[in-house]
Model the fold of this input.
Amino acid sequence: MDNHRNREEIKEAITLGEGFSIRKSKTLGLNYAYYALRFKNINNEFYILRTSGDYSKQLYQLKLFSGILIIFFLILNFSVHFFYKNYIKRDFYNKINKMKTFLIHGEKLNSKTLKDEAWLLEFWNVLKEWQHINLENIASLDIERKILNNVITSVDSFIGLIDENGDFIIKNDSLDYLILKGKDKYLEAVKYIEIVNIIKESLSTKKNISKEVYILPIKEYFIVSVKNIKNENRFLITIKNITKTKKTIEFQKKFINNVGHELKTPLTNIKGYLIALEDAPENMKGEFLETVNHNVNKLENIISDFLNISKIENYPSLNLRVFSVEDLEKSLRKSLHMIILNKNAKVSFNVQNGLINIVSDFEKLNTILKNLVENSILYNNSKIPHSEIFLKESYTHYVLEIKDNGIGIPRNKLNKIFDRFYRVDKARTTNLGGTGLGLSIVKALVEQLNGEISVISEENKGSTFKIEIKK
Ligand code: ADP
Done:
């Protein structure tokens, strides 16, 4: 029929030989399935045969079937999931438990238990290797920490690291008279405001600061430096006591000044008398020459004292040996011969019974005694200057005393006479050759011999110097 020509299945059958379609029938209002087939008859004429059937029932059955199928698969899916979840959970639980037992017992766990769990052994080996590396790292960190600690504690300057709140992270115990131990905050630990102010300034400005401070109550100089360790927001504080260095520099300046001064006086005298000598009357020439000679001697004395000082400072080593008291006396008398003669002096030796030999540095002891006896004769207005040397020993010490009947030393000057270049009063003595170095040389030598020197004196009566040297 012509009105069927446009139907989908007919069109398909014309072109492809067969056609199929499902659609709502306009006449019946139900879903119908149509199938069309094209064929030729024996006369070579084309026919298309079409059949149709109610599809709604099949569709309903199909939908029902699909619904059942979906529900079935959903249930299957859930049960498989549920089962698998529990299975995995149990498996994990077992594995974790095995791992736990293994970690507790380690390799001691018998190999039967591990038969199916070779991975545990592998895991264990990796763990062991890892642990080994960790232990090595910890050990080397520990060594580094110890070295760092030793370095920090062995320096004689204060070193401390604080955080931005001013709490100490690390610090050494040096200079504990400035920084109290056991305090965590720098504000509580640092004793002096001068140092606190420097740290405060660096903390607030975040700048590196290095300043010299003088702490009046303890009369010492320090260099305080605070460095901002930028990336870590920490501040490194170092404090160094520079009092000694400062004093040495000051002393060296003073020393050079004094040397120049001491040399200038005799040199000017020599120069003046030599010029005067040219025009001097014959009878005065002897006196002038005598003065020149005296000043040359003084120069010699000064230079010898300077050389002695530098020798003591540069060669502080001791040359200990056994020598007899007799030899010491002989050598001393020899070096004092001229002065004893000129001053009409008397030097007596009083040695403890049985003390024959001494173990010490012969040269140094000789220089000490020579200087002290020389002074006892020079600073002496008695007709017969008398210098008595007493020598005795105890189990631990040698004790020497040099007693004179000289002019004595004023009480308020006693603590100064061992200072370099110190002379009590130039007017009260005829000793023009003095440099004020003799007693400082004596003190330095006594200290090198591990001894101590002290003096008692009374003006116009005399002085006694006492030396105690450890055996
Ligand atoms: P110098 O003798 O070269 O002046 P010293 O250092 O030996 O220097 O002595 C320092 C000062 O101590 C002397 O100037 C002197 O006034 C005083 N002095 C030292 N020994 C005696 C002494 N035995 N009696 C009195 N005064 C002394």
In short: The first strand starts at residue 18 and ends at 24.
